Amino acid sequence: MTAADSLTTWLRVRREAEWHRAPALRPGRPARDGFRTWCAGPVHRRDPVRAGRLLRAYALARADAARRAPLDFVLAARWQCEVLGTTEAPFRTGDAYAKGGRERYGLTPRTPADFAACLREATDPDVPLAARAARAYLDVAFFHPFGDGNARAALLTLVHVLARENVVLPEVGPLQTTRYADDPAGADDLAALIGVLDRRRHAAQPRSR
User: Fold this and answer.
1) 103 - beta bridge partners?
2) Where are the domains of the chain?
3) Other Cβ atoms closer than 10 A to 207
4) CATH topology (fold) of 6-201
5) Binned average pLDDT, 10 residues per bin, the chain of 209 residues
6) Residues ≥6 apart with Cβ < 8 Å to 195
7) What's the CA gap between 74 and 89, in Å, rounded?
8) Contact 5, 105 (CB under 8 A)
9) What residues does 167 pair with on adjacent strands?
């Protein structure tokens, strides 16, 4: 029996999540860049080539944030080419699966356009930044646009959304947990976690005398 379409489930959860409850973030950069530290540490120890590719993709994502480039599939695909070491990163051409096949992300003629519409909401000023970053992360995770590397694409998308508003987290490791398409509380918790990491950044900064 074919698994239920988890992408359809996510789009319902996305509408129902209490994004407005996400904590406010304060612009600023920590003493250490959490994404770079993560790449230089656990990722590099596991696979130096993978770490190097991620860092190059991150540099592109940060540069795109600095120039206020609109978040869209073309932008994400350019980062994904660096992540995968390929010259192209097209939108998937069939259903995608994750979590050992327990989640299926369907594909219809409207899926790329729906994904584009979701990404455009990453700059919606009526939604707190932590919620927008969390929502964009989950959009990538559950639209699953690429044939490979979607978890890395989701994290790059999250840090790009934050960097557009000059927020850099001191850690990204805690974000690397399994997320489920049918879990509205988990979506809210991801936004809350971004707020926690942001507060850690400010707590770690030395106070001026």
Assistant:
1) 98
2) 6-201
3) 4
4) Fic-like fold (1.10.3290)
5) 86 95 90 94 97 98 96 98 98 96 96 98 97 98 97 98 96 94 96 95 59
6) 22, 23, 24, 25, 130
7) 9
8) yes
9) 28
